[in-house]
Design a protein that fits this description.
The chain is of the alpha+beta class. It has one domain (about 5-55). The chain has helices at about 10-15, 20-30, 45-55; strands spanning about 5, 35, 40-45. Helix 1 crosses helix 2. The longest helix is centred in the C-terminal third of the chain and has 11 residues, at about 45-55.
Length: about 55
């Protein structure tokens, strides 16, 4: 099961950061995401993984 899938704007709201920062993290490889057409989608588990890695 995939869990919930978020847009970059939703991820930004959850993490309380700017949407462009989310895109920056994706492009740097710090946050994993899937590109569908011209937009990115992020699985809930990947957000959790990002938070664990960034808090070290």
């Amino acid at each position: 099961m995939l869990g919930k899938i978020y847009t970059t704007e939703q991820v930004a709201s959850l993490l309380q950061i700017h949407p462009l920062t989310v895109l920056k993290y994706i492009k740097e490889g710090r946050l994993k995401a899937v590109k569908l057409g011209r937009v990115y989608r992020v699985q809930e588990a990947l957000i959790q993984q990002f938070l664990e890695n960034e808090s070290l």
